[in-house]
Amino acid sequence: MISGEVAEAFEKIVANAKKVDALVAEIANGSNEQGHGIGQLNSAVAAMDKVTQDNAATAEESAKSARDLESHAKTLRGAVIELHALFNVPPETTAAPSDSAVPRNSRTPGPRRAAASPNAPGRPRVLTSR
Predict the structure, then answer these.
(1) Residue 89: CB atoms within 10 Å
(2) Domain containing 18: what range?
(3) I want to staple 89 with a disulfide (CB 3.0 to 4.6 A). Which of 38, 82, 84, 104 is the partner?
(4) Distance of CA 10 to CAs 19, 30, 79, Å?
(5) How many other CB atoms are found less than 10 A from the CB of residue 77?
(6) CB-hemisphere CA count at 13 Å for 7?
(7) Is residue 101 in some structural domain?
(8) Mean pLDDT per segment of 10 residues, for the chain of length 130 residues?
(9) How many CA atoms lie within 13 A of 14 on its CB side?
(10) Could you give phi then psi for residue 28, rounded to 5 degrees?
């Protein structure tokens, strides 16, 4: 009978529609999760961008501080030269800029000549007991 076949066809259509509905729901759920993941990724990228900008600003500040320090060192060096001139201190008595951090009495002396070895050529061989 035709009505039985039609009813059976409608049941198949309804079953397939339910399958499609379930698949669409899964796709929607996956899209929501993907959207949430993209939001988290955007937040992480924004945080990295802020850190990068902060680091760049810190590097600029450090470079400016280094330039200021160099300028102050040159000014101080000039003042020391003026003081030496004022008190007639010869320039060779002052420490070189690279030596300025080391007090004069703590510097190591220059190279010394090594003492002749007791077993050097031309000397009698010295035997030691062990």
Answers:
(1) 13
(2) 2-62
(3) 84
(4) 14, 30, 102
(5) 13
(6) 4
(7) no
(8) 89 96 97 97 97 97 97 96 89 58 49 50 53
(9) 6
(10) -65, -45
